[in-house]
Write a structure and sequence with these properties.
Layout: E1 8-11, H1 15-28, E2 34-37, H2 40-49, E3 58-62, H3 70-77, E4 88-92, H4 97-105, E5 110-113, H5 118-134
Parallel strand pairs: 1-2, 1-3, 3-4, 4-5
Helix pairs in contact: 1-5, 2-3, 3-4
């Protein structure tokens, strides 16, 4: 039996941000698949019921979602071994240092402010694409500070 195709789990309650992320990814790789969630509770329910051979290849989680922040989602799965190999990125409209610290301390591999222009969006998608292809094994990703 073959494993299902890899996909990105995106948790974000803003439909415009979800659409923009999908559009920019599709431009660089039309084969990219997504699973969409709108809040942290959906993410936790989904991940806990997901078979090991169908876990996401990458997670992009909004910091400010209704009910539960992205950092709180990551805290809930931080110590579960089966999720450790999945790269986890938190993004937000805010570049508040407290949010950044909470996300990174909760298991995020990186934190990005949501891009304000297309060039920045494309740069972010390029970085996320590397994580999608190489996972956490890729240690020389230039995050661009």
């Amino acid at each position: 039996m073959t494993s299902p195709k890899p996909y990105i789990l995106v948790a974000d309650d803003d439909p415009d941000d979800r659409e923009m992320l999908a559009e920019r990814f599709q431009r660089s790789d039309p084969h990219v698949r997504f699973r969409w969630m709108t809040n942290g509770y959906e993410v936790l329910d989904y991940l806990r019921s997901c078979p090991n051979d169908d876990l996401p290849r990458l997670m992009v989680i909004d910091y400010k979602m209704p009910g539960m922040t992205g950092a709180e989602v990551l805290q809930c799965i931080q110590h579960e071994e089966r999720f450790r190999v999945i790269p986890k990125v938190v993004w937000s409209t805010s570049d508040n240092q407290e949010y950044i610290d909470k996300a990174l301390n909760s298991g995020a591999d990186n934190y990005f402010a949501k891009p304000a222009d297309m060039a920045s969006f494309d740069k972010l998608v390029g970085l996320l694409s590397k994580l999608l292809r190489f996972g956490k094994r890729k240690t020389d990703i230039d995050w661009g500070g």
